[in-house]
Amino acid sequence: MGFRDQLTEPGCLPEGASAACPAAPPPIVTGKLLAIAGETRDALVMIERNAQPQVVRARATVDLHAAHIGQTVVLAFEAGDITRPIVLGVLRGQSGWPLPDMPAQVEVEADGERMLVRAREQLVLACGEARIVLHRDGRIDIKGHSIVSEAVAVNRIRGGRISLN
Hints:
The chain is mainly beta. Helices cover 0% and strands 38% of the residues.
């Protein structure tokens, strides 16, 4: 029996009544998170419907991340409408999409004009062979095949001691 078959409850009106019973909202269901789509960050979730897997696009009440892909999510339906699923959360105690290095606690603040990213020990920005590493003790390492420093006005290098080559 599918969701559409569950629209009325037998026996909710006295026998012989001609009016239909109010539609019962679909139950809360679970599905597998397949992807997080586009700028709206909608969830693509595979659910079982009429014993067939079906992929639905759903809004979410929680922030979903790449680490959640492959995990089981809980869905409800807005106003009982099966075409308007909403992800309520991710079930705990399961592993999702394997990440090579699970990220530690990182704090990010953004207000539209500035973004602040904080890490406890080290913050690394890397792309291919290029990398910038910020260390807790104040050291900054910049490594790359070639490094360009360019300024329209003055380009200053200051330090207690400067070593070239």
